[in-house]
Prior knowledge:
By secondary structure, the chain is an alpha/beta fold. It has helices at residues 14-23, 68-77, 87-94, 151-159, 214-222; strands spanning 2-7, 27-32, 44-47, 81-85, 101-103, 111-119, 135-142, 146-148, 163-168, 184-188, 194-197.
Amino acid sequence: MKVSILQFPGTNCEYDTQYAFEKLGAQTEIIWHKSTTIPADTDLLVVAGGFSYGDYLRSGAIAKFSPVMSAVKEYADKGGKVLGICNGFQVLTEARLLPGALKRNEGLHFISKHHHLKVENNENIFLEKLNTGDVVNIPIAHHDGNYYIDDEGLKELEANGQILLKYTDASGEIKNPNGSVASIAGVCNKEKNIFGLMPHPERAMESLLGSDDGIKMLQGFLAS
């Protein structure tokens, strides 16, 4: 399997992402944001985390204008699988490839810690190695992770099974760290080929570092 990983000025998780997928046996390639094409052999395109363009104006708001984003949209429109992690999720919402928006955390502080998530829907390639209701422990590290969508949009997400993950405690009860609507931590598009989440599964690959729950999350992509 070939995983292509986007790199913008300010991206800081591309090598963590590369390590995670190579640990699972995938071939990887890092793609600079000025590229106008996605490698033809790409099986999964990852928009990695970090602070693209220093999060100036708004997180992901400048990155959406990078040359590569036209190729990302074309790739996704043809059914290509795309995963946005943290800042990558922000970029995908700004580019309107995923619904909703990411706002400043409710407490106005940067949050960096492990946090539990509950799987809300596993009828997708991303989370198919997990069961609905499973709770995983995954690092979060964000200042603008407060997911927002209006009431009509939320109903649509729920009706289409687009809510992937929610922030909870270890027992699966809602525990919202940033004010996200409905405690949402991750969503997908209607076609379920574009995925976004604020937590960092690529940082949860080693039990020695606090959790290896990211392995099962990312393995779903390798099963295709």
